[in-house]
Amino acid sequence: MKPFKVAVLGCGTVGGGVARIMLERKEALALSAGRPVELAALVDLFPVRSAARHGLPIGLFGGESDLSGAQAAARTDAILADPEIDLVVETMGGTSDYVRGVCERVLAAGKHLATANKALLAERGDELFAAADKAGKALGFEAAVCGAIPVIRVVKEGFAGDEVLSISGIMNGTSNYILSKMTAEGIGFDEALKLAQEKGYAEADPTLDVGGGDAGHKLSILVRLAFGLAGANRTLAVSGVSDVTKADLRVAAEMDCAIKLICHAQRSGDIVYASVGPMMVKRSNFLSRIDGATNAVRAMNRYSGEHILVGKGAGSLETGSAIVADIVSIARYGERIVNPAARPGPQLRNMDELPFPYTVLFDTADVPGITGLVTTAIGDQGINIDTVGHNMHSGEAAVFAVETMPCTRSSILKAIAVIRAHRADIFRAEPKIFPVLY
Length: 438
Ligand code: NDP
Ligand code: HSE
Fold this sequence. Notes:
It is a single chain. 39% of the residues lie in helices and 24% in strands. It has helices at residues 13-24, 26-33, 47-54, 69-81, 97-108, 118-135, 151-158, 173-185, 189-198, 207-210, 213-227, 246-254, 316-333, 370-380, 409-422; strands at 4-9, 37-43, 87-90, 112-115, 139-140, 164-170, 237-238, 257-268, 271-282, 294-301, 305-312, 347-350, 358-365, 385-393, 397-404, 432-437. It has three domains: 4-149 and 317-336, Rossmann fold; 151-311 and 345-352, Dihydrodipicolinate Reductase, domain 2, CATH 3.30.360; 355-437, 2-Layer Sandwich (Alpha-Beta Plaits), CATH 3.30.70.260. It has 438 residues and is α/β, with parallel strands linked by helices. The mean pLDDT is 95. β3, α5 and β4 form a beta-alpha-beta unit. The chain contains 15 helices and 16 strands. Residues 9-15, 43-46, 50, 69, 72, 91-93, 116-118, 143, 147, 200, 203-204, 314-315, 319 line the site of NADPH dihydro-nicotinamide-adenine-dinucleotide phosphate (NDP).
């Protein structure tokens, strides 16, 4: 049978992993796909370096010399014009006009596309899925959300007979690694980020990881699949972990919690409430025990109830395996694969609009009656307090945490504004507000 031929554009961490798995598992992939699957060409700017890094034959790169951007573009054009190539893997990353243009041209050239590029899918997914539909080709993106975890396949295929009510989880390995290292080893944020970068977890621009943007991209892709919501990335409320301190993590531990960067989306009729941000996760919730670069997704469905997926969210062979799964599936089903459609109707709203339990961390002057002042202001907003914890005072500073029963964030902000109006002098730092996940 005619082999299904694949070209990989960008042979870095992920592209190199794809190429290596395709070569190592050639026979097994042919059995799964029902036809031979062949790695036909690789494009990278530094072929010798990439070939050595991933143990790949230099011949697949078309030559040994380093390529300029123009030379790489010319080699890419030749691949797009080659009728023998069935599928192109885009693992260059980023949302430049060049990368977006290449993806569109792959589809327009009548080839299937597989990509791990969540930033591009979150920002330009509508156009890309439309281009794939117009061309009648498949767009594989299993690797774009939570690396090796087959969450796209599970939501798209496994949940096809059900209705997703909510979806949440830890979807950025870098942030989770940083928080875990800061908690377990007491190291600072910068040192932990450097370690995550050395391990290859972080994006080329790590502010996407620590600012919550990368997790936001993944949640935007998932809400399209789970709820049919298009363009979520434009308005999704996102915050990251760069302001979480060792002191916050210590207080969290004393409140029987771990601080985690949580993606959360839940549907109520045609409204999807969603956000990405640091939450205090109670120790009884399994997400509090997901450490390192591991990712975890929890879905609640109408008929089948709770589902939990846990696995590697990043890494060369880990993420590469997810792209290879797309390749096999597309080689097997080809044009019969249905790309995920957005549905008219669903509206995105910020999770802040839903009543939620919160922990508010106060760092104030150590003056008599300070906890009374704070808790009275909170009570005056009709907020019921669950716990006041971790009362630590040093003569200069009083650091304490107030955990509330479900309320809106805006009511907490009003309470803080009232305290400030009475005693603007007592805050040593802006109070920090964390939703609490049970
Ligand atoms: P890398 O930077 O490691 O790899 C990108 C590769 O593409 C590099 O080798 C780069 O060369 C090469 N490249 C850049 N421009 C061109 C070009 N014009 N033509 C050909 N090759 C080019 O990134 P990753 O592999 O980590 O990420 C790739 C994608 O996968 C991103 O979209 C990322 O978000 C996504 N992803 C990454 C994960 C991970 O674990 N790393 C996990 C899940 C998704 P050079 O190094 O010289 O610039
Ligand atoms: N930078 C991403 C992370 C890679 O840390 O999770 C996987 O998407």
